[in-house]
Amino acid sequence: MPLQPLTSRAILILILVFAAFGAQQTAVKAVVSDMAPLTQTFLRSLGGTVLLALWFVSQRRNPFRAPTGPSMLLGLLFALDFGFLYLGLALTSAAHAAVIYYTAPMMIALGAMYIVRDEPVRRFKVLGILFAFLGVALTAFSGASGSGAATVLGDLLCFAGAVCWAATVLVIRATDLRDLDAPVVLFHQLFGSVPLLGLATLVPDGGWAVHWSPALIGSLAFQTVGVAFLSYLVFFAMLRRHYTSQVSAMNFLAPLFGVVFAVVLLGERQNALFWLGAAAIVGGLCVVNQRRAGHPA
């Protein structure tokens, strides 16, 4: 099936997908007092694995046909990715987490040019990446007010999650995993992370001290069904049907939605330094996803 330009319907679907991605940080932050972050991400991965396995059964496909070593590495990186992110969310604001976590595409672009070397070096992209990382520094030291304060440690944990996300993509691009369908790769990320995240919930300080509430149930359902299963599947379907550069160009919507949901739903208030840093990150993300005539992003 030849790739097609984005249609109005596809753009609307992608807006909803990136809104779900951006809302995830707010969903986690809203219920950290009801369930520990590591327990949330464990249940998210477990539920996503089960749902994706059932989807493969319905498609009569076997997702386990994949190189063992790289697949195990994917599970480790995925566990570290969301482990760091969810721990960071307990210590910083949802808006900070959303903005800093979505610096990963910049690191992916940098790694593709200098580590994996499957993309040519482009100075305008490097400048956009450096500009975005300046935004991270501004954001990390901007503080926050309202329902959740921000800390440098929390921001650094979210940034570590972004580093693991970038490493995951680079491992996929540098190994035989690049020849597999994206849903199969996602399944191995989720499946491999479950035992590691399960062990992480056994740490002291009550990893399983849970206060069940409608908000917690709704948050877990959204994280598991809405994000880990449906949003990812739809996103990968869009990548199969439309030009990657056009789909990737809309990545900047995720941190923007993340900030909006944090402000509206959690009452977080940010200062001018945060908005300056966020603008630098989103601007850098837009530059990274730009393409010049004759070249993919």
If you had to describe this structure to a student in words, what would you say it looks like?
This protein has 297 residues and is mainly α. Helix content is 71%, strand content 0%. It contains twelve helices and no strands. Helix 2 (37-59) packs antiparallel against helix 8 (182-200), helix 5 packs across helix 7 (152-174) and helix 6 (123-140) runs antiparallel to helix 12 (272-288). The longest helix is centred in the C-terminal third of the chain and has 28 residues, at 214-241. The chain is globular. The chain starts with 7 loop residues before the first helix and ends in a 9-residue tail after the last helix. Residues 292-297 have low confidence and may be disordered.
Could you spell the SSE succession in H and E letters?
A: HHHHHHHHHHHH
The fraction of residues in strands falls at under 5%
Count of helical stretches: 12
Range of helix content: over 70%
Low-confidence stretches: 292-297
Features:
membrane, 297 residues, globular, mainly alpha
